[in-house]
Amino acid sequence: MKIEVKQAKLADCGAELLAVGLFESAELPDGVAATAGADDARSGFRKLSLLRPDGFPPVVVVGLGEREEFDAEKLRVAAALAAKEAKRLEAGSLAWALPDGIDAAAAAEALVTGTILASYRFDRFKSGEGDESPRLESLTLLGPTSLEEAVEPARVAAEAQNRARNLQLTPANVATPTFLAERAEEIAAGSEALSVEALGRPELERKGMGGLLAVSQGGPQDPKLIVLRYEGGGAGPTIAFVGKGVTFDTGGISLKPGAGMQEMKMDMSGGAAVLEAVAAIAELGLPVDLIALVPSTENMPSGTAIKPGDIITQYNGKTVEVNNTDAEGRLILADALAYAVELGAEKIVDIATLTGAVEIALGSTYAGLVSNDDDLAAEVSRAGEATGELAWRLPLHPEYKELMKGTVADLSNLGKKRKAGTITAASFLEEFVGETPWAHLDIAGSAWDIGREYVGNDANGFGVRLLVELARHTAPEKHSA
What we know:
Oligomer: single chain
Strand content: 15-25%
Helix content: 25-40%
Distance between the termini: 24 Å
Number of domains: 2
Radius of gyration: 23 Å
Number of strands: 18
Mean pLDDT: 95
Number of helices: 13
Structural class: alpha/beta
CATH architecture of the largest domain: 3-Layer(aba) Sandwich
């Protein structure tokens, strides 16, 4: 989508549809306020009114509610509502007058993000031309040119999030581990600061990555450990992003119920977020040094699949009793986390659709956050607050580790009791990071079906903007506002 900033009056901006926000007890802009029906424009949050002033294109008035309760997240929702109205009216261009109840840069970010995300369509697999209705092609923000510094990062991050949604929604017969590796190669080809390697089964066997090998052995698709390196020349610590990339999860021998299993093509949502966040970071040229790892495989049942009770050896030498083959994500992440430490990561953030328990605990509003480092946990929480991808920190405690001890091996991949499923899974992962500051994001409740106006109830690319924001904050020369 084309995004531009103009210092122009509403009537002169050249857009097919204009959008203005209206706070409670506030007035509409000159030229709009005199329109027939303007007195009936609704100011309640999420309320829409369509006006047709003389000498103006149509104006959609978006209710913003009470000024004191307004924030960037509400403006993302307002932007999404205006974008959907543009689609209904078949408008190809939209212009927003920035509301005055929020910092101008934050308002610009919110409007760009909400508009781009709400305009998303996925029709790759529809026959013919798919959805042939006109698309919203451009967004104009009416404000000072200084807003361009906020607009470009917002555009890049939002478009990266939409690309992650594409990966999530692509079916597993197309989006295989090899497909994700090829996407990583495309990303690396776009920047001289990026390099990539994809370790296949022979390399994984030589390295002894028992978790990834074990999960993959039930299906015909070769596993991949995708490693992207971004050398942005940053003076800060080398950070690693690790994303779970299970391209389809049947549960293996511990088979999942059939209802809703088609959603398990999105069990690679963490990997999708990591890949496209790296693409955005490279496009923005952020001065950070970054390692991104995506362990990718299918989890299939067959005569060769790993069985409950089998024992495997992970990359760092620890042995694991596989007491439930549907607790596979932690097995592949364990290898990748240990490898990230070996590659020199000084901070690690992993993101994964890991446990159903997190949806029971937090719903879709918050991702679960578990960390061994207070400072890193605070950085991740702050990034989530800034982007609207919220994370709620859950505790670590030695008693949770006790639940993950094995009987005849070092560890079990499933807790001995049905207690604190999200935390015990994270406690398992902590065994593979040593003393390295590490934060884990469990997005099993947030990667789809979140229900926010700008992403709806399907795949939403959760985590892309959070990771980009975290990288921006890590870059010492470009701290985010």
